[in-house]
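ingest -> validate -> predict -> emit
validate: passed (alphabet ok, no gaps, 102 aa)
predict: started
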Amino acid sequence: ESREYEFVADGPFTLVREYSIGLPPGWDVAYMPEHETFACEHGRWMIDCTRSGNTLHLRRSLTVDASSVGTGGYPEFRRFFLGFTLPRQSLILLERSESSGS
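emit:
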C-alpha cells in the first residue's frame, strides 16, 4: 500500500480487451459486470458487458496517463488499479435455465 521509491511504468498507454462469449444451450447469465467507469489524475478505465441474444460482449479499457508516480501519490494510484481488477469487473456466472429441463 506504500512505496519507498517512485513507481515507474511503461506509460502512458491504453489497453483494450474485447471478448464475445457464446452461451451454451440450456444456460443463462446469473451474473455479468455492470457498466462502470472511473477517472482520476492517473488515468481512466471502463468496463462494459452487454448481452445480444445468446452472446455476451465484454469490453475492458484501461488508460494510464503517467509514466511515473511518486511515493505520495501511490496509494491513490494503487486504488485506481485495484478498482479495475476487482473480480466483479470480469466475473461472468452462468446457471442452467429453467427451460432446459435438467
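The longest strand covers residues 13-22.
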